Amino acid sequence: MNKRALVYLALVSAVLARAFLYIQSLQTPAPAPASARNAPTGESAQALPQLTVLSGKLTSEPIRFTTTVGGKAEFLVFTDQADELHVHGIDQTIPLPAGQTTRVSIPVKDSGAFEMELHHAEAILGVIESYPK
Asked: pTM value?
């Protein structure tokens, strides 16, 4: 092989290697955030949606939990500052200790849409939608 062919082969190999590494980085899950360090383990914890609040601001996507009357809304909440989760219309307040992931289970007795927020931070976390059976 001549030198020009070797140079092209080396360049193509380098480009392919970079492309491979880039694609692998897209497929590799990101390391677990600090909020997951205190999260419960097991199948039930993996199936639950999780909200993360840092410095009083929701950093994860807001949650829209759908259930039927008589069901429960269950999810995980991590906050780096102590606060209270309040569900409007259900009038339930759940304490959230700082630096911990709390498993929240809210029984739903009526149909409707119920907004969830943090009392002190006044951050809107999402909505629980409940439908008749």
From this structure: 0.63
